Amino acid sequence: MKRTLPVILLLAALVGAAVAKLPATSEEARAKAAEAAARTAHAGKVDAYKLCLSMDKVAADYRTRAKAAGQDIKPAVETPACADPGPFVYTPPEAASAAPAAAASKS
Fold first, then answer.
1. Where are the alpha helices (DSSP H) in the chain?
2. What is the DSSP letter of 69?
3. pLDDT tens across 57-78, in order?
4. How many CA atoms lie within 13 A of 99 on its CB side?
5. Which site from 11, 23, 61, 95 is most exposed, i.e. has the minimal number of CB atoms within 10 Å?
6. Residue 87 gets which letter from DSSP?
C-alpha cells in the first residue's frame, strides 16, 4: 500500500501534464466531427426506417396467416407509416448561418 500511492500520484501527474499540452482542435477537425455526428444520426434514422419496414412486413404476414385461419385480427393501436429519411445531405453550420445573414443584408 505504501508503494502504490506514490506510483498513482506520479501517474496522475504525468497524465495531467500530457493533457495540458494537447493543442486546441482546429476548425477543420470540428467540422469533420460535426459531419461525422450528422452521418451517425442519419444512419440511425435509416436503421429505424428499415426496422419499421421489416416490422410492417412481419405484421402483414401475420394478419394474412390469421385471416387464412379464419381469425379477424385488428391492431390495438394504429401505428404511423414508416418515414423514409431520404439520402444524407449535410449543410455545414457556417453555411447555414451565413445564408440567412446574406438574405437579411440584401433586403
1. 4-20, 27-68, 93-106
2. T
3. 999 999 999 999 999 888 888 9
4. 5
5. 23
6. S
Phi, psi of 21 (to 5 degrees): -95, 0
Spatial distance between the Cα atoms of 46 and 85, rounded to a whole number of angstroms? 6
Grid cell for residue 37: 455526428
Q: What is the pLDDT of residue 40?
A: 97
Cell 508503494, residue?
A: 3
- pTM value? 0.63
C-alpha grid cell for residue 20? Answer: 495540458
Residue reference for cell 453555411: 95
Q: Are the beta carbons of 56 and 82 closer than 8 angstroms?
A: yes
Nearest-angstrom CA–CA distance, 65 and 68 = 5
CA distance 15 to 90: 37
Residue 15 — very low, low, confident or very high, per pLDDT cuts 50/70/90? confident
